Amino acid sequence: MNRESDGSESARGRRSYLAALGAAASLTGCLGGGSTEPTGDSADPGADENGNGTDGDGSAIEFDEDRLESRHGIEFDRVRHAVDDLGLDPSGEVAAEEDVESALSEAGTLLAFPEGSYRFGGTVSLDAERVGVLGLGGVAFEPDFGFDGLLFDGQGETLDEVLVENVDVDIRAPATTAGIRINCRSRFHVEGVEFLGRGTNGSPGGTTSAFLLAIRDEDGRGVLRDAVAKKGSRIDGYEGGNGRIGVWVGWSNKGTVRIEGCDFREFGNNGVYGSRTPGNVEIVDCYFLNNNVCGPRIGGAGSYVENCTVEIDVDRYTGGAIDTTTEFNTRAIVVEQGVQRRGAPALPAGAEIRGCTLRALRSPRAQSVIEQSPVARSLVVRDTAIRCDVDGTPAVRRGPVGSLSYRPDRRRPPRPHWTRLRNVAIDGSAAGGAAVDLRSAPGSRVTDCEVTCRGADRDGVYLDRSPRSEVTGGTIRTDGHPIVVAVDPAASADALLCLGVETALERTGDDDGGIELTADPPLLRTLDQSAGSDGVCLGLGPGAPTLPVVGSPSDSLRFSIDALEDGTPLGRVLDRP
């Protein structure tokens, strides 16, 4: 089968992308101008000198039944050779799906493929208790021209453990796309799978995700490791929710799905869509580039994004001109924890983003870098570096809490709704808006963060209807205002904001019109709040420190905190909108 090369890496080079990811997450490295895209070495640590696949200890994967009967904790009763035992054609001339499905219908079977290209004209269904597919080196599965569906569909009731390892899925033929679904009871291990070519975005309900993964047992665990898809689909094909997804972890997942060391780019509908599942999703050491909607998307407690690099730079998109009229929105990470289905409980609060490097460099539309959606509950972001060069785009945004009118099953999430940042570095040339934009997020915290807004008229931290929030430690430098508080006219004695006196706030723009409020003693109060440090609390209502407000109390108050020579905090309202 004649396929034009698109420049994608072969099976022999897929694992090398991941070597640079650990260092990419450092705070000092992320704020520079260059990309942290993993490049790796020319040699694949997963192949021997002859191009054969290798075991984890570096030895070649040879057809040795005794040795292959146990892989990644999955025990097999027999190992069959795809060519010698089944007579499959490694030249790709004869379709293999019927013989493969027949061989894998026997529980406990591992089917090993020697080097070659194997043609598939239809879907292989998996429903035996334990089954596996293993490439011995240089193995490609090639769906027929025009194929649009699942290459492997594993969701039988008896399906318990599944292995898919060391194969390519070649979809470089025009109008061809394919995916792998594994919905099993207790364990799957998918490793070293690369999609070659660009998948297609389909009609409503017809788009095939690259991976659809689920573990049905709460104590079960599935791993997707070292998977690569560099040309997921067209990134402007989302309209109506029909864009191709890199990894879908959906409603039927009750266990834990771990996605590690993967590389997902240019998908039209999320690189990893893992927020609408009652189970946990762990995304670790992965790289994402130019995925529409977002790179990784997660839900509640037990789910996290760790040590990942996510970049948005449409100048590096390889699919040609982009149509931005079709629901185009390139965010780095999205968190949502609302009601999953009618009558189902909301996900528990507690998602985390930690140790990540996030860059939004160029995009015609990016709502935010980190988006905490209106149906999200709480979020912790720590030890993370964010660069945003897209004007008007927040580095971190907590959307106004509420339901989504176009999704009646996505109702207002229960509390808490806070956002908490710790040891987060935010930089970039974006102008306008605010670096941290938190709405309806009471109890939020910005702790020991370095926020530098170099763009014109850009504020640091914006708090709207988010009382009892704290800013402690760190530095906020802005051309606009370091902190903006939108006052809720219904506020009672709640503090609008508590600031640790050690927080350094600096406005680089013109603040000659500022109104100093040092003559108003109730403005300042020493607290035992803010993680045990003394602070300044600003608020409205009986019993709270008061701010004199000109006009309606719903006006926003924009202020900074400086220290006089004697260390006394100074509150200053800079201006009004």
Q: How would you portray this structure in words?
A:
With 577 residues, the protein is mainly beta. The protein has a 16-stranded mixed β-sheet. A hairpin with a 2-residue loop joins strand 1 (70-71) and strand 2. The chain starts with 20 loop residues before the first helix and ends with a strand. The model is unreliable at 1-33, 39-52, 511-536 and 539-577 (pLDDT under 50).
Approximate shape:
elongated
Our Rg estimate from Cα atoms comes to: 26 Å
Mean pLDDT level: 80
Strand order of the largest sheet: 6-9-11-13-16-19-22-25-28-30-32-35-38-43-44-41
Count of DSSP strands: 44
Structural class: mainly beta
- Can you tell me the residue ranges where pLDDT is under 50 for at least 5 consecutive residues? 1-33, 39-52, 511-536, 539-577
Largest sheet: 16 strands, mixed
* First-last Cα distance: 65 Å
Count of DSSP-assigned helices: 4
Strand content: 35-45%
Q: Which range best describes the helical content: under 10%, 10-25%, 25-40%, 40-55%, 55-70% or over 70%?
A: under 10%
